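Narrative of accomplishments. A recurring question from our advisory board has been how the design workflow behaves on a single, concrete structure rather than in aggregate. To address it, we present the structure tokens for one chain from the evaluation set, followed by the sequence designed for it. No filtering or post-editing was applied between the two.
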């Protein structure tokens, strides 16, 4: 299993620049243009990290989290994390949206077997952030594809059985976890 860490990206500490440079380099290896690679998601991410994105109000927190592999020294996935109070839920909900895989994965430059590790690493990072700096009682993860639903259903069952989560279910394209 890769040696992953989840980083919250920011302009002030230079982590956004490191992320952007890594993905620019990955695009070049894959004969792709960074400015054309997932432009909608990357513009959204940039707006969140530099503060130019839309404000969601004082009770909501939005960050961009990225999965870093200490062994390969690459970022493999980035996502918008939004913590908010939602109607019908007791406590805060940490929503995971816009999961965007790196050019290494998207352009088949990383082994296909890496994808499940990246998704599991992302979920582990989200669990950690929900229990620490982003303090949330629930996680809602928007799944990338129908194939992810079956994968997360099995993964969620294991989390529920291990006691890490008190409730895990999938509804539509969402994974719901109550911690």
């Amino acid at each position: 299993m890769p040696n992953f860490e989840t980083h919250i990206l920011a302009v002030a500490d230079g982590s956004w620049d490191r992320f952007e440079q890594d993905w620019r380099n990955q695009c070049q290896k894959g004969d792709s243009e960074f400015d054309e690679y997932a432009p909608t998601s990357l513009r959204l991410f940039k707006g969140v990290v530099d503060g130019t994105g839309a404000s969601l109000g004082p009770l909501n927190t939005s960050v961009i989290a990225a999965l870093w592999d200490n062994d390969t020294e690459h970022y493999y996935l980035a996502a918008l994390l939004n913590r908010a109070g939602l109607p019908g839920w007791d406590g805060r909900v940490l929503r995971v949206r816009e999961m965007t895989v790196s050019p290494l994965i998207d352009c088949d430059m990383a082994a296909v077997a890496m994808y499940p590790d990246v998704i599991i690493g992302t979920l582990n990072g989200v669990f950690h952030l929900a229990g620490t700096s982003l303090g949330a009682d629930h996680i809602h993860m928007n799944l990338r594809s129908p194939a992810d639903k079956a994968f997360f259903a099995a993964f969620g069952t294991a989390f529920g059985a291990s006691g890490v989560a008190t409730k895990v279910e999938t509804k539509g394209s969402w994974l719901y976890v109550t911690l």
